[in-house]
Amino acid sequence: MGLNHLNCAGDDHQCPGRRCPARQRAGRATATAALLALALAASAASLWGAASADAGQEFEGVVRPFFESHCTACHGEKKQKGDLRLDTLARDFVNAAVAGHWMEVMERINSGDMPPKKEPRPKADDIARVSDQIAARLVEADATRQASEGETISYRRLSREEYRNTIRDLLGVTCDANDPTGLPEDPDWQGFERIGSVLTVSPAHIEKYLAAAETAMNEAIALGPEPKRSINRMGATEFRRISGEVHDQLLAQGVLDKARIDIVPNNGANGTPGEGNELKIPVTGDYLLRVKLSALRPVGGRSPRLLIYAAGIDRNIFEQDVEAPEDRPVTLQFRTHLPAGAHQLRVINAVPGPNPEGRQSRPLNSKPFFQIASRQPWQIKLTDDEFKPIWPTILLDWLECEGPVYDSWPPPAHQRIFSHASPAGDDDAHARDIIGRFASRAFRRPAQPAEIDRLQALFAGERKLGSSFETSIRTALVAVLCSKSFLYLVEGTGPTPGMLDDHELASRLSYFLWSTMPDERLEDLAGQGLLHQRQTLCVEVARMLKDPKAEAFKSSFPRQWLQLRRVGMFAPDRKLYPEYDDYLEKSMIAETTSFFAEVMDHDLSLREFLDSDWTMLNERLATHYGIAGVSGEAMRRVALRPEDHRGGLLTQASILSLTSDGTRHRPVHRGKWILESIIGKPPPPPPANVPPLKSSAPNQPKLSLRAKLEAHREDANCAACHRKIDPLGMAFDNYDAIGHWRTEEAVRDGAGADPKIDASGELPDGRTFSDASGLKKILVADLDKFAAAFGEKLATYALRRGMTFADRRLVMGIVGQAKAQDYRLASLIEALVLSDLFQKR
Amino acid sequence: MSNLLSRRWSMPRRSFLRGVGVALALPLLDAMAPLAAADPSTGKDAGGKPRRSVFVYIPNGVNGMTWQLAKDGRAFDWSPSLKPLEKHREAVTVFSGLHHPNGLGQAHVCADTWLTGAKIDAQSARSYHNTVSCDQLMAEVTSRYTRFSSLELSISSGTGQPNNTNTLAFSRDGVPLPADDNPRNVFERLFGAEVGGIAAQRARLNQRHSILDEVLDDAKSQRLALGSQDRSKLDEYLHSVRDVESRTERLDAWLDVPKPKVAGGPFQRSVSKSQAGEYYRTMFDIIVLALRTDMTRVVTYMNGSEGNGLAIPEIGITQSRHNLSHHNGDPDVLARLSKSDAFIMQQFAYFLDKLKGVQEEGETLLDRTMVLFGSGMSYGHSHSNSNLPILLAGGNALGLKHGQHIDYNLPTVGSYKLDYEEWKSLCGRPKDDKARLSNLILTMLMKMGVDAQQFVDSTGPIQALLA
Prior knowledge:
The complex is a heterodimer. Chain A is of the alpha+beta class.
């Protein structure tokens, strides 16, 4: 029960148990793992919990006596109150009904509902132990289901990001999958957006895949002559709709095309007109956009921030701080992919603060600016008496759009698809050849004859209707892109049950490190049957980590592991946190992802995640942290001093803020996050209908949130779980809901001074700390356990499913190997890829 | 007409029956058949006129102290939050004390299960076994007459996450159906002209159909090789492809029926969600338009999701609904929550006004449209979900009796004090275990012509509603 036998095709009756050769093999390979496991099991009351060697026995040892003392009198052989009998309750947690019963049991004893009030109370510790056991079993069953042990062949859908990257590498086409008209957002499980059993496909997905495939094919294959590349320049006056008399006078003076417009902060907010214009895009494709502009930056203030937004597709096309001085404007150029149509572009100055448009000193539209009659004395000025700017202002000259841009014509994908010469006059053979080659690349394995037959029939049908050769090929290739073999990662079609074949291994590897399809080299090695060999894998991993495509891993993995999608999910209240803006949020997330990338690129140890003397900052974030001397938009490594109160992941603003509810920090949620993402041991769910915290009466002294949460300590039922959760969260009370450092807590209810922050705490094993840096030191001391938890997260990401007990033992072995390299991140990744775990289903 | 005999349909029927809490008569699949037999131009079922249902959801519960009606029966006074419905008294029934037994203790999934009544383990990622939502059961019956089988609208587009859904509608596989949050997009989808004309559109549809045929054959050939009896991802994929193929067939059949000409003016501009009132009213307008033109007869609308309930700056409420619902007993916050409740009820009254304003053959649109309004939570602060705020409006011509407050709490509590402690205690566990939201849903299913005797854990239709 709960133990999954590796590589086992036999049934229970034939199971030789410990004499099973597969199990013995696994046992040998994880000798170090067993040692680690024992070491961990020894500290049963520790933060990290016990990793059991024999889970089933321990479960019985804890749960059975508890049931006998407190439950079976009413829920046993003699009586079955509420139709529930506990002494014979099945242990098959994989069965949904059984799991439901166990969850109810856990919920009832946690909330104190059971045993009923008149019976003697069980000790809170006992309740906690039983609850832990049940929770662990449920997690295990979960992972078992995710591992699809019952399925002969498993299908795990590509995530939205992976689909986009695969289309890019297969066809060279940018897929606007993130647009509102694009693919639906992927659901997540504990932050991971690529868990096979969670990613579903609905009819709406199929429709979107069809539409995306058709659009991508239209761009990739040339069905006509090359679209004309044109340049469309729009002067500044078009963005403010300067018209009529003013327009004519400017034209007469010869300055219409030289006029600039001033764009003040938050233009277009609160119903003011803002600056915008329509951009007509004839053909879906890549376009070059250029903007000529300069900036007015107030002394001691910040630069204005250019943001170009396309309203119809609801997308920020480009954003950047503008540094160029007024007399030396700069031309910014960027390349972007736009769908055909008329787009309402808005040019926005995206800095926080009020919008002064309504009353600023701007000439009226009825009289041009060089006539004195256009000035109104009561308007607010753009500059002060010394002609210094008052707020960050953009001065826009023009915006132009060039395209569509093609790197070659016909496009590279077209050339690749139609590259081979056609055998004279034989359309069908040519078509078969093209379809076969494309399908093999798209399916990430050789296409089978029956598959090619079906696709060729589709081609022939279209051709019979009178369509051209290219158009008919296009139809067949669209079907390839909607096929299950393209949209899903398929595992289990190989000769060895329970193991991946080489092509499946190539896909797993490339979607792990690159979030995209295997390249030619990987496919070649797979085709030759060499990929599963240790030496080959070693070389490939090193090559892949150096490839630019590994950037996908470096941004996607931390985003999913650390649940960064929750940053800004509850938008910080504008009144309480006026300085919070989009740019700050982006910078916060960028700190974490570039921190991760830095650890990878410079071959640093996992230890840096827990505590470091450096971090990655740009000017915006440095201002937020109160760290001087950083300027510009790019993230760069900055050394930290103790008084900066930062270092490692746990005190980064993104992580401190993602658990907030938009008004205040939430220590219990912070504790839960640490248990989930750092320690790898999520707490059991809370019971329903927990009463709310009491607020202070107006005449009572102000209480900090910590003081109000003391209620968790008073009730033994609550304390059992919360003494593991609360201290971890309260250690970070010095950081508010958006990650600012503070020493007092701003409290609204009650009277008197704001209370001072107390960030001290005690862990269940007795170790104490006085603040966040003390907690970080304790976590660093437990580095082995963090490495194990991290290893499990990495494996979950790579294998796209939760880890069972058996998997965890293998993960320990992998982590044990990485320990010899001081837990360098790259060495851990290598150890994972080379392990047995990576090659089995 | 039965497509069980159609050679396209080689999927075991069993696949469609598993996990369904409804005892339905077979065949289930008629509604997905090509429209050879139904005549799209009449749009009417045997015996007359269209029947419609709309489901409107608000998140995080309400302030029960200002929502709860003190008296039951017909002679009740309106509470402050429900007062905007006063002029629709004869078309509204208010309920107290309803709950979903499977939902107790499962706080955040309340939106996921509001129309499905399923028991979901909120902690596990066990491929999220939800079941079919009642609106989809209705759509199966009505879709043969309408161009679109159902319409899903929401505050946020897409499906959201398991346990934090953006949509109320779930397919028979328990897969969420994505919603739309942009009235302009919806308008284009419903009424937009076919690009390039009908012949071109037909050619496109045919091509699409051929592609889907090939994709389906490819997947089915693989499925034969699988021995597994359990639900697999391949089945989910297969059903979805087949569904799109049916839709393609349906679109083709409807091509020759001209789309109604409607003025799109109000829907061409984008309405910002920061103008909450206008945004809500625009969404309600598009629902009325879709029903009035018989584009569909089943609509679900999440006015807010559990994680995303709009702030209402125009009446001075800057907090999101989620933050308001975590009031912690603070009278200021509770007052704001009440204000927010009343505001939403004003917009809902506007919706009922609009439905009532459309005449069809001696009745109004409201007379033939049932609207279920409410939340999956009651006392939002601790995520309690007994005593759900629920009301049913419209459908008087379908045989419903309104103008009453049906209260399942009063037999136990006697009378209401309408104070904080009472509100909390009403919402923790149900006073009447038989007061199930599924009974109301079953009543609606029956009125829509769905051949059902039960829905999940229902004990029977609500007799007091039936005329």
